[in-house]
Design a protein that fits this description.
By secondary structure, the chain is mostly helical. It contains five helices and no strands. The chain has one domain.
Length: about 110
């Protein structure tokens, strides 16, 4: 699968976590949605990952018990996306998910 095709699929997956959060837990991630429209999925993910602290949206989803709908979980739970990120970015995702006791990464 070419990188362009993988990036397009990732864009779709990012939009999907926005719509899932809205439909399943009535969480409207307005800033996240705006970022997706402006920067697309990959750039949005990288901006959020490289932020010094977790986003307000991440915290809100944690409070709702839905860390599975975070960008970090989307990336870590789906190894197909790992090719789009470097080791440091993947490590940041894992650390954040562990810090918030996400079921998918607790050892």
């Amino acid at each position: 699968m070419g990188n362009d095709n993988l990036e397009k699929k990732f864009d779709d997956a990012m939009m999907n976590i926005y719509t899932q959060a809205l439909s399943e837990v009535n969480y409207k991630a307005t800033v996240f949605f705006r970022m997706l429209l402006e920067h697309k999925g990959l750039e949005t993910a990288k901006r959020l990952i490289h932020s010094p602290k977790v986003s307000d949206g991440y915290t809100s989803l944690w409070e709702l018990g839905r860390l599975d709908l975070t960008v970090e979980a989307l990336i870590i739970d789906n190894p197909v996306w790992h090719a789009l990120f470097d080791e440091e970015e993947l490590a940041i995702c894992v650390k954040r998910l562990k810090d918030y006791k996400y079921k998918g990464v607790i050892s």
